[in-house]
């Protein structure tokens, strides 16, 4: 059996409901063809400071329907390139959810997370247990633990690396 992914500890970036893929990365930057370059424009309109201030393992907290709109794979891919450790939302657009795991971006659903977590809070997410802990207060929110297959995809770095390991 493969090792379990470790807990993700990071600083929260809080967004509201209906953050679509055009807010994550505007269509005009898709011609750059380089995810690292695209990542320099992540959340340019709703959070202009994001691209220059995000740190490795920072955690995006969002409301309902995160990743709606276009089904472009670039949106979750640039979050990976930005160093985002995990996205925790009250709900995800179905295709964004699938694309996230395909590119190795951890995603977890936690109801009412935006009513508890504030920008800049230090939090710890345990994908195996399906929990989010607010480090300052010790409050624990229960979410949906990920199925083993999704954990395996993340451990491999996404769907393509996972399939290559199956040989």
Folded structure, characterized:
There is one protein chain. With 167 residues, the chain is of the alpha/beta class. It has a single domain (14-165), classed as Aconitase, domain 4, CATH 3.20.19. It is built from seven helices and seven strands. It has helices at 21-24, 35-39, 50-53, 74-82, 94-102, 148-156, 159-165, and strands spanning 8-14, 59-62, 86-89, 107-109, 122-126, 131-134, 140-142. Helix 4 links the parallel strand 2 (59-62) and strand 3. Helix 6 packs across helix 7 (159-165). The longest helix has 9 residues, at 74-82. The two termini are 17 Å apart.
Jot down its keywords.
167 residues, alpha/beta
Helix-strand pattern: EHHHEHEHEEEEHH
Number of helices: 7
* Secondary-structure-derived class: alpha/beta
Q: Strands of the largest sheet, in order across it? A: 4-3-2-1-5-6-7
Tell me the CATH architecture. Answer: Alpha-Beta Barrel
Strand content: 15-25%
The CATH class assignment is Alpha Beta
Q: What gap, in angstroms, lies between the N and C termini? A: 17 Å
Rounded to an integer in angstroms, the radius of gyration calculated over CA atoms is 15 Å
In which range does the helix fraction lie? 25-40%
* Unreliable residue stretches: none
Shape: globular
